[in-house]
Model the fold of this input.
Amino acid sequence: MKFNNALSRVMTNQEKLAYKLIAPAILVLLLIVGYPFVMGIYLSMTDATIGTSSTFNGLANFIWLAQSRLFQTALENSLIFTLISVVIKFLLGLPLALLLNLNLKPKKLIRGIILLPWVIPTVLSATAWKWIYDPTYSVFNWLLLNAGLIDEKILWLGSPWMAKISVILVNIWKGTPFFAINIMAGLMTIPKELYEAAKTDGANSITCFYKITLPMLKPVLAFVILFSTVMTIGDFNIVYVISKGGPINSTHLLPTLAYQIGLITGNLGRGAATALFIFPVLLVVVYLQQRISKNKNDW
Amino acid sequence: MIGEYMYRIKRRKSNLKRAAQYLALLPFLVFAFFPFYWMVITSLKYNQELYNLASNPFTITTGITFEHYIYLFKKTEFLVWFKNTFIVALVPTFIALVFSIPAGYALARLKFRWSALISTGIFTLYLMPPTLLFLPLSKFVNNLGLTNHLGSLIITFPTFMIPYCILMLSSYFRTIPAEIEDMALIDGCTHVQMLYKIVLPISKPGVITSSFFSFILAWDNLIYPVTFISNSSRKTISSGVLTELIRGDVYFWGSLMAGAVVSSIPIIVAFVFLMDNYVKGLTAGSIK
Done:
């Protein structure tokens, strides 16, 4: 009994301490994230414009969005960009991780170069890409023309489909290192004994890869895929720098569209409503991530 | 004799294998590095050569020039933007650490009823793109009278920095052996004393890494400065370079690339020193 009492006193003390330590962070986050979030929901249900007072208009903004071709394109793009770029980042990131895991020399230099796209601020590197895609001076065109592969210049940002591909390529360039490094870290957590046991049972390296490596990598893969889904859908920098959503509004994602509607056109209410659509995606991703980390083996 | 022969074959085979591995790695290295090479080489060319379609764009044939850098420093407010970026990266990072260190410690070590829920909440905010709330935040900033002030960025950057730092710090605190803490507690330290006198000093690498991450997040943020700030002398590098070196359809490519090179340098220097920690931080979300 005495012991139990002491234990419960320790627990409550620990609880008290925990709340003391964590409360400041929670309060600040409630103020600078929670309050704006509520404000965002309210804004999305008003006809607020820049500089005028607003009135409540219920779901009018959402109905307007649902009927807007622009919004549909942004949603489609979110899906297309995410699907294509995640698949390619995985297909490039996995072999790259296997190569990095060989610890080829000079190890630090190799890792450094591979990680550069992820480390360098996107705004700066995307500006370099914009120059690489320049309609007149594109280095890709120079290469292709001189190699005799094309007869006239490709306008990398000229047509809706080319522009989409060009934006996705930058996303892939930026995100592949993140995939590779996380997969590599996942590879290092796989116990060597598993491979040794499999080898003694006569398994070859391809069988090992499919039966050991891939299944053991599942949680890591799930994380990087979910993470990059949110990053792709919530991206502003790449699209803003490379195409500003053009040509003919064909490369917008939700954030750039929200920026255009909310600030360029000045319709804050509709802009806020547009950006809010990132939220359900976020919730789904968090839910999936939580489920996966709870039962790592059966999903 | 035969043994030596076999050994040679084996070695040749493994040399071949090595070569194949390097060969496979090469395209990845070229792909990753090319845009930086492109930045640097563009920033050093005379305009005549830069805009000459006949010349080979991969090399510099008519000599190196610093005119784009001079233009950047003399004709634009680049140095001011650079200073602004430093301020809005450092101050909020510091603020974020002040709130995140105790919170991260509580989540890593202490048992309390709401810890699972709070962890999930922090994780949600860690994943939340800064683009979700930029419009209400612009109103928030405006209500506080901070539009067009660096203060607008100083109070909004912690929205993504705090969750990042909490997540990374708590995953770092978990790697510290609990015995060290038990010893300190037995010696009569309170939990708070122990956190600041014992845990924090050993956690220096974790603190430095999370600062570096949150620094990069600030350096790379574009949507907040373009939304809250229109006054050129209050801009950050990202927003300043994009609005002042692009006039309508005219891009000052030489100076744009010079700006990109100069503003990448602090990040690259820090990265070189912190790489091992950086890799650990990068995988904090996936490897638990």
